[in-house]
Amino acid sequence: MSKPKILIAREIFPAVLAKLRQHFEVEDNQADVCWSVEQLSQRLADKSGVFAMTTERIDAQVLSAAAQLKICANMAVGYNNIDVPALTQRGILVTNTPDVLTETTADFGFALLMATARRITEGEHFLRSGKWDRWKYDMFAGVDIHSTTLGILGMGRIGQGIARRGAHGFGMKVIYHNRSRLAPEQEALCAARYVSKDELLAQSDHLVLVLPYSSASHHAVGAPELALMKPTATLVNIARGGIVDDAALAQALRDKKLAGAGLDVFEGEPQVHPGLLGVSNVVLTPHVGSSSVPTRRAMADLTADNLIGFLVHGKALTPVNPEVLR
């Protein structure tokens, strides 16, 4: 019996590729070429499954020729790159990679918060450019983290991980806003208090964004929201580009209406708003929040196991649209 055909849209770990070849006829992309919409669509025409990443937009246009596609396995916990309703309508299962990246991403979010608050990037650039010739009492003086107020917008697994680090590791007062309030026992574990969004913006010394992207969360933090924040506050976005109005944020940073920002995600990435590149009080990283070797391997393995589980054994591990299975 012939093996099902799958497409791997980007380069992956060789060991994961080898595992998939045991079960499937695989078209890989170890050259890591970024295909156009038309090229991706053509490659999906005879495939039963696709191993996708956040760089691929999987929507009705891409699926126009994919008559045999049964599963789109996304190597990410977020799936705003996938038009889930369009795939559901076609009976195509979508899977993601929850849980395996929670702690690593929370680590990174806190690292980005610390780098922003303590102006580490500014200091390094200053040193590397050869400008450091003496000590000065206020040189790159930032803002404290310990005993300050940590605000979290979006209190899922990663948000809770950041809350625990702040409360238990740095003695921070933790407040949060979410679409739905956590259960009392979860709040207790995070030592976190629920507040309105306006209260969150106004009270936070450090605000971390960890909410999923959707049309409802587009520009959840724009010029009006930034105006509510303290001029001494920092903003960290490890969620998705588009949640923050990058142009408004660049203006607020330029006008010193915000002490600093740490950004791992951007609108229209890999392009970055030029206004953000022109200010010094921002730490910029290229969407690497989950990028530790063990975590990325776990993400790739889970993505592969979803493809194997569904196409070979009839059961996916982490379905996003389980109604397709019914």
Arithmetic mean of pLDDT: 96
Number of domains: 2
What structural category characterises the helix and strand content? alpha/beta
**Helix and strand element order:** EHEHEEHEHHEHEHEHEHEHEHEH
Q: Remind me, CATH topology of the largest domain?
A: Rossmann fold
CATH superfamily of the largest domain: NAD(P)-binding Rossmann-like Domain
Count of strand segments? 12
* Integer-rounded radius of gyration: 21 Å
- Estimated share of beta-strand residues: 5-15%
Largest sheet: 7 strands, parallel
Low-confidence stretches: none
By CATH reckoning, the class of the largest domain would read: Alpha Beta
Enumerate the strands of the largest sheet in spatial order, edge to edge or round the barrel.
8-7-6-9-10-11-12
Distance between the termini: 27 Å
In words, what does this structure look like?
By secondary structure, this protein is an alpha/beta fold. It has two domains: 5-98 and 293-325, 3-Layer(aba) Sandwich (Rossmann fold); 102-284, Rossmann fold, CATH 3.40.50. The protein contains twelve helices and twelve strands. The strands form two sheets. Strands 8-7-6-9-10-11-12 form a seven-stranded parallel sheet, with helices on both faces. It has a five-stranded parallel sheet with strand order 2-1-3-4-5. Strand 1 (5-8), helix 1 and strand 2 form a beta-alpha-beta unit. The longest helix is centred in the last third of the chain and has 19 residues, at 293-311.
